[in-house]
Amino acid sequence: MKFRRDPIAAAVRYALCATVAAGLSVPVLAQAQEEEAADLDRVTVTGSRIKRTDIEGALPVTVIDRDQIENSGYSSAGEFIRQLPFNSFGSYRPQSGSSFAGAALVNLRGLGATRTLVLINGRRLPKAPQTGASNDLNIIPLGAVERIEILTDGASAIYGSDALGGVVNVILRKDFQGAELMLGAADPSIPEEGGDRTEGSVVFGASSATSSIIAGASWDTRDIVFARDYPWTSPGASFYGNSFVPVFPGYSPFSLTSIPGGCGPDTFNNPDAAVPVGSPGGLANSAGDQFRCGYDFTLVSADEASFDNKSAFVRAEHQISPDWTLYSDILYARSESFGRYAPVPDTSEPALGGNGIPLSVDSPNNPTNPDSPFFDPAFLTQLPDGEPTPVHWWHRFDALGNRDDTTGTEVTDLLVGAQGMIGNVEVDFGWRDTDNQFTSIGRNYLVRTTAADFLESGAYNLQNPLANDPQVLNSMKATISRISIYDQWEAYATAAWDWLETDAGAVQWFLGAEYREEVYSDQYDSLSEAGAIGGSAGNSAGGTRDVTSAYFETLIPVIADLEISVAGRFDEYSDYGNDFSPKVSFRWQPLAELTVRGSYGEGFRAPSLDIITQLDSFSADPVSDPQTCAVAGEDPDCEIQINGLRTANPNLESEQSKQFSFGVAYQPFDWISGTLDYWDIEITDRIAFFSAGVLLNREQAGDPVPAGLGVERDPATGAITRIVQGFGNEGTVEVDGIDLSITTTFDLVGGRLSNNLTVAYTNSYSIDGGRDLVDDPGVPQWRATLQNVYEYGDFAFGWNMNVIADQCDEIDDGACIGHVPTWVTHDLQANYFTPWNGRFTIGALNAFEKFPPIGVGFTDGRDYDFNLYSGEGRIVYARYKQSF
Question: Which domains does the chain have, with CATH numbers?
Answer without folding.
Answer: 17-228+305-340+406-444+479-612+655-686+732-883 (2.40.170.20), 229-304+341-405+445-469 (no CATH), 617-647+687-729 (no CATH)
